[in-house]
């Protein structure tokens, strides 16, 4: 059993849990995820690792209520226990394989959409600890849904915000900010975009034009995280891949986003049906 050490609401329907899980904390790397099961009857929920502290043996995860299982999870409190907390799973971010010398002069631009700021956080933290230059863009529907801004700023990078309603940062899309930063003369070796699939699609289209290598994380399309359900199947450069076993990160310029969006819509309809069923 895994104890919840801390629970914090980052926004409405977005909760951060700090879990005591020393073995996971010991080997966690940026980009990886865990599979959580609340109790015997619970479904397996894949969640990206938001932070880890090897000395305290804790791992932080961020849960956004999107369906029946995440709704149940969000109701847990500090002191409660989770039955399974398996991980770390999936491949670590590609830059983890680069040495300090290779990373030294690189410049990264991270683009997070909504709750995508959670998986971005450990990546920026890792790079900043090695002194690597990172700019960060966070986009959300409104100010209340912008999460982890201060935490990311504390890592020593510039954070730019865009909101749909203009309640914080610029009124517009993350792509407007990418364009603006590049037009202002900023250069980047790589863009890392994590968020809704549509956002990653448009960021990738833009960075392709701008000729900037782009990595996306398709963590949001995983369902059971085991390689069994097929929900995370994606075509990358004409080849079939599974996000949970081959990813979750892929070359953003090679992903067939339209295929992913089509399948996600199918699953969303089913989840809405189940949400209504459980709340009856
Ligand atoms: Fe089910 Fe990957 S999440 S196969």
From TrEMBL:
Pfam families: DHODB_Fe-S_bind
A molecular-function term among this protein's GO annotations: 2 iron, 2 sulfur cluster binding
One GO biological process term: pyrimidine nucleotide biosynthetic process
Residues binding FAD, per UniProt: 62-64
Positions annotated to bind [2Fe-2S] cluster: 229, 232, 244
InterPro entries xrefs: Cyt_c3_hydrogenase_gsu, Dihydroorotate_DH_Fe-S-bd, FAD-bd_FR_type, FNR_nucleotide-bd, PyrK_electron_transfer, Riboflavin_synthase-like_b-brl
Protein name: Hydrogenase, subunit gamma related protein
Phylogenetic classification of the source organism: Bacteria, Bacillati, Bacillota, Clostridia, Eubacteriales
């Amino acid at each position: 059993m895994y104890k919840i050490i801390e629970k914090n609401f980052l926004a409405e329907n977005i909760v951060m849990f700090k879990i005591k899980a020393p073995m996971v904390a010991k080997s966690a790397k940026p980009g990886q995820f865990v599979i959580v099961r609340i109790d015997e009857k619970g479904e397996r929920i894949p969640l990206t690792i938001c932070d880890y502290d090897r000395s305290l043996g804790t791992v932080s995860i961020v849960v956004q209520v999107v369906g029946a299982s995440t709704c149940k999870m969000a109701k847990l409190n500090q002191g409660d226990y989770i039955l399974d907390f398996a991980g770390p799973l999936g491949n670590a971010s590609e830059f983890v394989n680069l040495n300090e010398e290779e990373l030294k002069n690189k410049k990264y631009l991270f683009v997070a959409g909504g709750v995508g700021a959670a998986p971005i956080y450990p990546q920026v933290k890792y790079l900043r600890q090695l002194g690597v230059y990172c700019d960060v863009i966070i986009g959300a529907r409104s100010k209340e849904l912008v999460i982890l801004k201060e935490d990311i700023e504390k890592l020593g990078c510039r954070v730019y915000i865009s909101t749909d309603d203009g309640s914080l940062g610029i009124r517009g899309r993350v792509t407007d900010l990418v364009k603006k930063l590049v037009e202002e003369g900023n250069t980047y070796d790589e863009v890392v975009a994590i968020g809704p699939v549509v956002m990653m699609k448009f960021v990738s289209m833009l960075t392709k034009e701008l000729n900037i290598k782009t990595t996306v994380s398709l963590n949001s399309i995983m369902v059971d995280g085991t390689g069994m359900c097929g929900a995370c199947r994606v075509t990358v450069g004409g080849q079939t891949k599974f996000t949970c076993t081959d990813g979750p990160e892929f070359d953003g310029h090679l992903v067939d986003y339209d295929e992913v969006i089509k399948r996600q819509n199918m699953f969303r309809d089913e989840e809405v049906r189940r949400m209504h069923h459980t709340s009856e």
